[in-house]
Amino acid sequence: MSKEQEHTQEHASLIKTPQQLIVTVVLSFVIPIIIILMLVNMVVSQGRSGAGSNALTPDAINKRIAPVAGFDFVDITAPKVFKTGEQVFAAVCTSCHAAGVAGAPKVGDSAAWGPRIKEGYEAMLNIALHGKGAMPAKGGNPSLSDYEVARAVVFMANKSGGNLPEPAAPAPEGGAPAAGAAPQGGGQAAAPAAGQTAQAQQAPAQATAAQTPPAAPGNAATAAAAPAQQAPSAQAAPPAGQQPPAQGATAQAAVNPAGEKLYKSTCFACHSSGVAGAPKFGDKSAWDKYIQTGEDAMVKVALTGKGAMPPKGGAANASEDDIRAAVRYMVNAAK
User: Fold this and answer.
1) In contact, 152 and 176? CB cutoff 8 Å
2) What is the largest CA-CA distance in the chain?
3) Percent composition of the chain: helix, strand, coil (DSSP 3-state, to 5)
4) CA atoms within a 13 Å half-sphere pointing along the CA-CB vector of 168
5) How would you label 82-114 residue by residue, b for 16+ Cβ within 10 Å and e otherwise?
6) Average pLDDT value for residue range 70-79
7) Which residue, 261, 264, 271, 282, is CA-closest to 334?
8) pLDDT tens, residue by residue, 171-220
9) Calpha distance 309→269 (Å, rounded)
10) Predicted pLDDT at 231
11) Can you say how many angstroms the Cα of residue 54 is from the centroid of all Cα atoms in its chain?
12) Which residues, 6 or more positions from 264, have their beta carbon under 8 angstroms from its beta carbon?
């Protein structure tokens, strides 16, 4: 009896209760489905590295391998296109003036802009150009021209209850004819003038020759030598119609035109009116003490800055030659 009982227990089923049977049936359906889904997901995801993320898309890869410093080709011969006040505001000023960050007056807030508008356009422009408090000069973008900064000031002020006129655009460089330039047809007009000058110079010589008595036979050698002595002086005289260059023109040619350009783009903001103790442009008495220190000393001050003047006057991209040219331009105007 014991052997038969042991044999029966060895072949007994693992499912002994109805609950075990139900669980077994359910698992027999669920487990194959889960396995099938996992296999399908594995097959589909083999062609996608990092499935569920766009980190390996072509656009994402190009952004990661792009160079840190980019550059744009600019045609320096093309006329400069100035940004509008709204464009400057959107690119530079909006970071502070859109929300009133760090005490900046919020655009559209007439109460905040009212006292500033009462101070006048020049006062607001001076602050925008040179900075105040947490705001850097030109909003932190030194590449902006003074005209573009002025347009941004007018745009924000008018959006905040002001009624300022649009600032006048600067005159294009090289638009006006150069001083002393000959008018059209000047060559034709110069020819008769040269002829008249030659005739006028020949008339006294002919009159002198007519008044000179004929030479005596014994003085023939002396008479023959006289024209020879006068010949060098005639050759030394400048040709008819030509005059030696003026000293002012020579001095002006020695001045680098980059100095005038730098002054009109940067230095004029302080030196045109003598702001913050800067020597006023053309004021001989104000410039005299600086001129006495020498050009090198003035250039050093301009490069390193002094008092309210930042290094290079705020023109960070200006070279030492440009700074020296600007100093010479202002010094020449004060002499």
Assistant:
1) no
2) 185
3) 65, 0, 35
4) 3
5) ebebeebbeebbeebbeeeeeebbbbeeeebbe
6) 69
7) 282
8) 766 544 444 444 443 443 333 344 444 444 444 444 444 444 444 444 44
9) 11
10) 40
11) 39
12) 170
Q: What is the three-state SS of 65-117?
A: HCCCCCCCCCCCCCCCCCCCHHHHHHHHHHHHHCCCHHHCCCCCCHHHHHHHH
Q: Do the Cβ atoms of 303 and 311 come closer than 8 Å?
A: yes
Which pTM value belongs to this model? 0.35
- Residue 111 predicted with pLDDT over 80: yes
Phi, psi of 14, deg, nearest 5: -75, -25
What's the token pair of residue 7? 């044999």
Query: Please, are residues 161 and 113 in contact by the beta-carbon 8 Å criterion?
Result: yes
| Token pair belonging to 331 | 């010094």
Question: Tell me, what's the pLDDT at 191?
Answer: 39
According to the model, what pLDDT value does residue 72 have?
A: 66
C-alpha span between 167 and 47 (Å, rounded): 60
Task: List the alpha helices (DSSP H) in 165-272.
Answer: 186-211, 220-236, 247-254, 257-262, 268-271
Contacts of residue 167, defined as CB under 8 A and 6 or more positions apart, other chains included, come to: 147, 150, 151, 154
How far, in Å, CA of 132 to CA of 135, rounded? Answer: 5
**Per the structure block, which two tokens stand in for 212?**
């000179």
Least confident residue range of 137-146, 262-271, 298-307: 262-271
What's the pLDDT band for 154 if we cut at 50, 70, 90? Answer: very high
Mean pLDDT highest for which of 5-14, 36-45, 207-216?
36-45
CA distance 275 to 288: 18
In which region does residue 181 sit, left (phi positive, over 0), alpha (psi from -120 to 50) or beta (all else)? beta
Locate 203 and state its tokens. 């008339």
Written as one letter, the residue type at 328 is R
User: 256-278: per-residue pLDDT in tens?
Assistant: 788 888 888 778 778 877 777 78
